[in-house]
Amino acid sequence: xxxxxxxxxxxxxxxxxxxxxxxxxxxxxxxxxxxxxxxxxxxxxxxxxxxxxxxxxxxxxxxxxxxxxxxxxxxxxxxxxxxxxxxxxxxxxxxxxxxxxxxxxxxxxxxxxxxxxxxxxxxxxxxxxxxxxxxxxxxxxxxxxxxxxxxxxxxxxxxxxxxxxxxxxxxxxxxxxxxxxxxxxxxxxxxxxxxxxxxxxxxxxxxxxxxxxxxxxxxxxxxxxxxxxxxxxxxxxxxxxxxxxxxxxxxxxxxxxxxxxxxxxxxxxxxxxxxxxxxxxxxxxxxxxxxxxxxxxxxxxxxxxxxxxxxxxxxxxxxxxxxxxxxxxxxxxxxxxxxxxxxxxx
Length: 346
Prior knowledge:
By secondary structure, this protein is α+β, with helices and mostly antiparallel strands. It has 9 helices and 23 strands. It folds into 2 domains: 218 residues, Rossmann fold; 114 residues, CATH 2.40.50.100. α2 packs parallel to α4 and α4 packs parallel to α5. The radius of gyration is 24 Å and the shape is elongated.
């Protein structure tokens, strides 16, 4: 089965179009307010767009303004950050609620519930009430409940955002197992969710899709600021100019362009913060890109310190921070060799 979606919401400034292939897990990434959750709501049938159409496995979910299939008849299951388990029901009956509401007998529903509880490693929790569960346990039950309804498309909205960091790795492993060969969309802020769970990535900013592609490709060669940020890379956007990139502010950055890009075509220059050096005065000598800027903040980054400025970052050692007396507001030069900068079409 596959999803095809095009939707516009005027008052939320949402205008998107994407697809999900049969058996594919798609990750939607983007900053807060990008429209990620609205996109899931449109697919699930709880957010009504102003225009657009969507189909799932060839069946129309909506084709506005004429056609709109209600949420319960779409064959989708939406799992939000909050598990939203029924407090008066046991775990077993929570998971069996979906099949029961679809017309299956109590016995069939409970058999399905037991099957999916086993799949998420939670069989021993069957007799408990939601108030007796930890956050990680409750989220596992929410996954089982969503899958027990046998959705054609599973929608997960930040499923690990509210979990304690100690239980997230196990949750990811469980999701990796149950999502295998299943059509699913996962909204997330965490690059590890995309790397470990998703076949393909869509990056949204301000209600628009700014890049999409195979997960490894997007993270290795990002074309948006957010994509570069989650990949831990610096990105400067502009127009190609003689093998370099000229930004809207007039800054030119030299690099290696492959394939060659015609002048005035949109392009990005991407480089690793670890390849950036920090100076107090503009250096001279071999060809290098130097940017005058100010330190915004310093933050631990593994065994190093990440020096953040308005547009770029540099990773340096603690002794360098001490030697240069780096602190927020200090004027510095960020320097990167042209050989460390990759230039490619935007």
